[in-house]
Structures
1.
Amino acid sequence: MLNFILNLIYPKKCIICQSILPVDNNQITCPNCKKYIQYIKEDCNNEFFNKKNVFITRNYGVILYNEYIKKVIHKYKYGKKEHYGKVLAEIMNDKITEVVKKHDIDVIIPIPIHKNRFKTRGYNQSEILAKILSKKIDVKLDRKYIWRAKDTKPQNNLSIMMRKNNLKKAFKLVDKQNVSYKKVLLIDDIYTTGSTLESCAEVLSAHGREVYSLCLAVAVK
Ligand SMILES: [Zn+2]
């Protein structure tokens, strides 16, 4: 009954075209937009994606970063659409379950954003995803272990070299004597060049952690 009323007030909408979905529909898109959610079956270290990092053992992604997903993630990040996190985490659920089991992951860590950006955006989009997923699949979440020391420029218009320089010493670890993580899974929204993940992973691996990554959407090179 409560669900029925809630559905009348806040009808569930297709995440891509915003058309209203039937009350009993448990999909995240309308039938027409379903084709734009393109799931990735393998990991992303293969020839097709070629997502290889020095400090990351294996990179995983859930769906392809196409023009439709780009718009959805953009709204999620910059459009004060914090509630999109719930639907997007739903998309990631099966893949993260598989990755955590396969690699015996101890802890999931969202890519941190700088406190200045947190202030303007109001939330860290990757942290929301990681928080929901951690509860759902019952794996430890650590949001404080790694933090962003440098307020880096937006990466979008920078070359790969510039991205690397931009990210130098961007991340720091909190010195916790009692932390004994062996295998860490980094969570982020988009994988494009992978330089942010790499920079994060470098710090973690310098402290003896084995690093994996899982991103919601992966751009084909
Ligand atoms: Zn739709």
2.
Amino acid sequence: MNGHKAGQREPLLSASANYRLGLCLAQEAAELLHHCSDWLTDSERAVLDSLKTEKRRRDWLAGRIAAKRALGEGQPKDIEIANAESGRPYAELPGGRKMNISISHCEAGGLGAAASSVIGVDWEAIRTQTPAVIGYYATAREQESLRSPEDQIRLWTAKEAVFKLLSEELNHDLREIELLAAGKLSLSGQALKRWEKLGRPSIRLDHGVYAGACISVAYI
Ligand SMILES: CC(C)(COP(=O)(O)OP(=O)(O)OC[C@H]1O[C@@H](n2cnc3c(N)ncnc32)[C@H](O)[C@@H]1OP(=O)(O)O)[C@@H](O)C(=O)NCCC(=O)NCCS
């Protein structure tokens, strides 16, 4: 995969009517860490320089490059990606137009999504989780449907994606976001309040597997 040139549109993992996904693999991000002036604004560069560990710098950069690829507009270094106080990322395009984005990183690299409405993505390596971890995020009803490590990580990423879409004013109880049969969502507590505040939109979920890791996209 060659994606080193800033402004290049690839690699774009997917384009749909509702959102676009961009990718930056870990190896590429590691190579670009010291040659990223074509990708970052001055403020982004300052954030990168303030990050403590090499891993965090690589993950952070991979997420920014992936999101800028997903946006697919203008020159990457003219797009500013920042985080709101909640941690939610957003992009500001030249001229001040704001775009909804979401970012995730895992061992394989960074994943970014862009949409005209709120969006959430998560990308997580498939592995077996302990019952204690599963109990932390899955309701008893959901636990009954988990047959494999892929089932577990798909459920986990789905919830993290919906969490990122709903984003603000949430506590961190992922069991407030429950996945029922046939991909239907049931929300409770803060997640329900936030959804009502957003105007009770119909939240949809897409899933995939890439580089041995589950991807979930929550969108409207
Ligand atoms: C915020 C959270 C969703 C991040 O998910 P993660 O799996 O740890 O990490 P990911 O790589 O997938 O995502 C990180 C990105 O999420 C985004 N993010 C952070 N807070 C966010 C928020 N409130 N809303 C939307 N996106 C957010 C950021 O863009 C961040 O990347 P950046 O700091 O480089 O910009 C997660 O830590 C969290 O708090 N989840 C709530 C439920 C929970 O408790 N989960 C268990 C955590 S152990």
